[in-house]
Design brief:
21 strands, alpha/beta, Spore Coat Polysaccharide Biosynthesis Protein SpsA, Chain A, 655 residues, elongated, nine-stranded mixed β-sheet
Length: 655
């Protein structure tokens, strides 16, 4: 048992050096020399403070060697608290990765939990440091400030690190493929003799430690399984599982080839895998082929069941390639009959992980993670049988609210007229209200939703229970706005209500849109024929089938009218809504702190935060649709998503 405080601090610094993914290109930068520089004559308090930076990087540890900092690319920082409490002096590293925009999405974070648990079970006696790389396009800002994300990953046994984005001159068209170039850093992890990279959609089932024994050398610097594609073995490898032998000169040449020289032609849409294959061929390198059973693609079970059955007992890990992931909601698709047992394996491992986590909490007295807010209690307007008959799986859920307030902008009669139009849409609808208001609007809702009660739910709540009411109340509003504070707080709660519904997903929808209950007031009235008139919205779906494919999977859709955001309608896929809600409240809090008051105008916050959080928000320019003024540009998403507008004529993704 170590009791000397200096040795403890020295060990911490040594651990940090082992997990920092940097090219220490000079042999003078041995971990021992840096260890000594931090544990020498400094007073104890100063050494403790130096050993506990929140994020640690080579820039902070190099000291006198600052002249080589500019050579350290790509930059990486690791969370110091996780390094101190969970580090290891092992010369082996296990790495996975996560798009930072997915970090707040429960399903993706839990996937890393299952992967980490399965690795812990099956690495056996192999001691390895586990890192997770958060690749992001806003390095140094949102990624480093997200305490919830890094603490969640740390609780799962990972050391969170943030990678500087690599933007090669010829990036892939698909945004989700661009972050995969972060894998280049594997060859730069010089603190390790071997680095095993494992995608988050892999499940380890049997002994996995032997994979570190694969023969790697200067001519064969990495190992992988052969790619399975189109029902047969391909000519190249699959980078879902990679064993890498880090090498400074190799990394330098790879980095220069990708980022500066562009002297290797590769298929950009294949992302890092395509580059690595082309680079190896151009430099006369080979890759060591691992048995396919260490990363068995589920497609083999579907396309070559006899081959799968012949080796099933030897399969040590399953790669859930493709769109249907075992950790995503059912609305993303269901596995085939041949693959279903493999998804059952995943579910069993997840249950075991949760049980082990609960047992550890009890046995060790570990404080459980802070519980999220309870999901809203949905009051359905039809029995379960009727809901099954009117299922909305894969469709759209519209979220709205109505409260009788003295500060409401229009009369109660107008709102009743408008809601009777909006509620004729065929999509699922969730209404937030209070019981007093429901007593008045309930009959209107039942009448308008008569053909779709099985796709309708009500959530009873109060404005006082919303996030901004709890956090700021009325006192933080300017004097001129205080009399309208309840209405302003309600406007600011729109994204909160939308995110609650997206998380619970009561109707198994694919996308979720906030729609002001009074926003359907223009265009044709009740009784028009939606099948013949594209400007008629009575009885039609909010999103036309032809427009569904235009939705971004990662960014909230909203429109701008002149200089103001149109906060009456916005939304997107479940993942897009959750990413937005993860960061929007923090953006609002920063704006309130800087001004000292709550502005109260939700459009102001949407506009500023959309531009600050550009990777979570896609902005359309509202345009006039009809000369007779039947469409109000404040509600531009109505005609746009219904297909009444030529989508190619609309300015998208405004700066």
């Amino acid at each position: 048992m170590i009791t000397n405080q200096s040795l403890i601090i020295g060990s911490v610094v040594s651990i940090v050096l082992h997990v920092l993914i940097y090219a220490f290109r000079s042999p003078r930068l041995a971990p021992s020399s840096l260890h000594a520089s931090h544990s020498a004559a400094q007073p104890t308090a100063q050494r403790l403070a130096a050993a506990r930076p929140r994020w640690v990087s080579a820039d902070e540890l190099l000291g006198e060697h600052a002249s080589i900092r500019s050579q350290l690319q790509p930059r990486v920082r690791c969370w110091a608290d996780a390094v101190q409490s969970g580090g290891s002096s092992s010369r082996r590293g296990v790495v996975s990765s996560l798009d930072h925009r997915n970090c707040g999405v429960k399903s993706y974070a839990e996937a890393l939990g299952v992967l980490g648990y399965s690795l812990q079970l099956h690495l056996g006696d192999v001691d390895a440091v586990r890192l997770v790389m958060l690749h992001t396009f806003d390095f140094g800002e949102a990624a480093l400030d997200d305490d919830t994300c890094v603490q969640t990953l740390h609780a799962m046994g990972w050391i969170p690190c943030v990678a500087h984005p690599l933007r090669p001159p010829h990036p892939p068209h698909a945004a989700r493929s661009r972050g995969r170039f972060t894998k280049l850093t594997l060859f730069n992890m010089l603190a390790f003799d071997r680095v095993l990279y494992v995608d988050a959609d892999v499940l380890v089932r049997h002994a996995y430690g032997e994979i570190f024994g694969a023969e790697l050398n200067a001519s064969a610097p990495f190992a992988a399984v052969r790619q399975w594609s189109g029902g047969e073995w391909g000519e190249t490898f699959d980078d879902a599982v990679l064993l890498v032998r880090p090498n400074a000169s190799l990394f330098t040449d790879m980095y220069d080839s990708l980022m500066r020289k562009s002297d290797v032609a590769y298929d950009a849409e294949s992302s890092f895998q395509g580059f690595l294959a082309a680079y190896a061929a151009a430099r006369g390198l080979v890759w060591h082929e691992l048995p396919w059973t260490v990363a068995a693609n589920v497609a083999i079970a579907e396309q070559a069941p006899a081959l799968w059955r012949s080796r099933e007992a030897d399969i040590s890990a399953v790669h859930f390639a493709g769109a249907v992931k075992p950790f995503l909601p059912a609305s993303h698709g269901a596995p085939s009959a041949a693959a279903a047992p493999l998804y059952a394996w995943y579910a069993e491992c997840e249950r075991d992980m949760l049980a082990a986590r609960a047992a550890r909490t009890v046995a060790e007295g570990v404080a459980p993670p802070r519980a999220p807010p309870p999901p809203p209690a949905f009051q359905y307007l039809a029995p379960k049988a009727a809901r099954a008959e009117q299922a909305n799986a894969g469709g759209t859920t519209l979220v709205t609210c109505f409260f009788h307030l003295a500060a409401n902008k229009h009369s109660a009669k107008k709102y009743h007229d408008w809601m009777s139009l909006m509620l004729t849409l065929k999509d699922a609808v969730v209404i937030f209200t209070d019981r007093a208001t429901w007593a008045e609007i309930g009959p209107t809702v039942h009448a308008a939703r008569a053909a779709a009660l099985g796709r309708t739910a009500v959530v009873f709540t109060s404005i006082a229970e919303t996030r901004y009411a709890r956090k700021y109340g009325v006192a933080r509003f300017g004097h001129a706005a205080r009399w309208r504070a309840p209405l302003l707080l309600l406007w600011m709660a729109k994204t909160e209500f939308l995110a609650h519904v997206a998380e619970a997903n009561p109707f198994e929808s694919h996308d979720f849109f906030w729609v002001d209950i009074g926003s359907y007031r223009e265009g044709k009235k009740l009784g028009c024929d939606a099948a013949k008139d594209p400007y008629c919205y009575t009885g039609r779906h909010f999103i036309a089938p032809s427009m569904r494919s235009t939705l971004s999977h990662t960014r909230l859709l909203i429109a701008i009218r002149g200089h103001a955001m149109t906060g009456a309608l916005f939304g997107g896929t479940r993942d897009a809504v959750q990413r937005w809600q993860l960061r929007f409240p923090r953006c609002v809090d920063q704006l309130v702190r800087s001004s000292g008051v709550v502005v109260g105008d939700d459009q102001h916050y949407y506009k500023v935060c959309c531009y600050r959080l550009h990777d979570t928000c896609e902005v359309l320019k509202a345009m006039s649709v009809r000369d007779n003024g039947n469409w109000n540009t404040w509600f531009f998403l109505q005609p746009y998503l219904s297909g009444a507008v030529n989508a190619s004529s609309v300015d998208r993704d405004l700066p």
